Each structure stands twice: as structure tokens, then as C-alpha cells.
Amino acid sequence: LGGPFTLVDFNGRAVTRAEFAGKWSLLYFGFTNCPEVCPKQLQKMNDVVEEIDYEYGKGTLVPVFITIDPQRDSCADIKAFVQQYSPKIIGLCGTPEQTHAAAERWRVYYNVPDYSKKDDYLIDHSVVSYLMQPDGELAALYPQEFSEEDTLSGIRRRMAIWKSQRPIEVENPFELLEQARKSLQPIFSLVGIGKE
Hints:
Layout: E1 6-9, E2 14-16, E3 24-30, H1 37-56, E4 61-67, H2 75-82, E5 90-93, H3 96-105, E6 110-111, E7 124-125, E8 128-132, E9 138-143, H4 148-165, H5 173-191
């Protein structure tokens, strides 16, 4: 479940899954003309991201909205839509082919009516948020039925598991060795170490 994709953000910049490497991200597939479900999900997404940022630090969880309605949703439409809920949400769109490929990899169900006949239509689609780990792997799914607190609890749990399984990272081991050498220099001097 999940995989590489190539889409475009609401500023017209090409975006791939690699954009989110090293970060936790929360993905949701929907469309801007959705009258009720998508607005509720984006509001919940915003509330969850705000709480996670408060607890773990700003930018810990990246919220992403991907349209499943490329025929109607322009970059400008997506930008206006997501920014109603949060300036943090990254909105993505693509060609019908790119959208289909991304949805297929993420097992997103959606059924677009024959839009050649009319422009005013609704799209039946699965309502799920996908939590992605910093390594790009799927961590958890949060369906529509999950409350904000259910989702928060699940994300906290997944983050704790991830942290417990990661090795201790040392940013610059040579710097630590140099700091240790300097702190021990007085002792080295007393015993004659380091003198020519």
C-alpha cells in the first residue's frame, strides 16, 4: 500500500513522494466540491496537526490533500480550499492519469460520473487518512469513523513505536570525540600524554 507518485502542488511545482522523506505526513484524498465529508476531514486533519505540532514541535506532521477530481480542481481551487482550514496543508493535483496512478497505489476507491455530460457532480470515494513514517512506509490508516482523539492517540502510539525502534543517532561523531579530547586535555597534560 502506497508508493511513489508525481503530482503538482498548488503553486505549480512538481512534487514526488521523496518530498516528504524524513518527515511524518498525513495524506487524505478528496475533492474541493465535496459538500460535507471532505471539509470535516480537513478540519479534523488541521486539529490533529496542530496538536501534534504543539506536543512534538512545529512541522512534525505534514498534512497533505490530494484531489481525486483533476477535471475540475485547478491548482488555484485547491489552494483556496485547503487554506480555509490551514496554511500548513499541502494541496496536490495532477492529470487524470497521474491521479489514477496515485489513487491505485494507495488503494483509494473513487467513482467519477460521466463529466462529459455535466459539470455539477459528486464523487463517491473512500474516506481514509494515511499516516506515513519518515522512511516513506505506511504507518497506519484512520477511517472517517475515527474521532480526532482516536486519530491523535493512534499517531502518538505510532510515533512512540517508531522512536523506540530507531538507533541512537549521532550527528557528528568526530565533533563528540574532539569535545571529549578537550575535556580530558588537563588530565593528559598531567601525565604527559600529547607532549613531544
